[in-house]
Amino acid sequence: MPSKQFWEERWTNQQTGWDLGEASAPVRAFADQLPDKTISILIPGCGNAYEAAYLLEKGFTDITLIDIAEQPVKHLRETLKPGSNQALRIIQGDFFEHEGSYDLILEQTFFCALDPSLREAYAKKMASLLRPGGMLAGVLFNRDFEGGPPFGGHIDEYRNLFAPYFQISILEPCYNSIAPRAGTEAFILLEKA
Fold first, then answer.
1. From CA 185, how far away is CA 7, in angstroms rounded?
2. Looking at residue 109, what is its pLDDT?
3. The whole model's pTM is what?
């Protein structure tokens, strides 16, 4: 399983092929239709947190970011300045040790960074962090990879993974992925049961 040191080295050596340089189109489209800007949002494995910057621009007022690696967290503290922005909280830490209660958790390249042996723990932890009726939404890869990370998977296995913890509202191929990922992503919208 990739360790904290593994991720620190990836950031230090700029081996961040998962980084789109902007918030993903599926996440932007989902955020654009959310009417309540006061919901509490968690973005785990946030990296450069383009999704958070987008949410802040759109007026969301309660965003928590967490990443295990120091370098992206340090960068975010300098660029997003959470001390001067009451809407934002940035945490360096292990997602699986994080405690909190959220209305929405956004998934963007965190799931695929985790060894598949952690997927059951991921589903349980996500459900434990969501309030009743809370949602897990975002993008998962719908393809295989050699080795990893990233680690791939497919819609049918995701359905089996999440069904014990969530009501599955949407789990289908993305229609609005960026060109290099077209046909290889699935959008999820899962509601805590």
1. 23
2. 85
3. 0.88
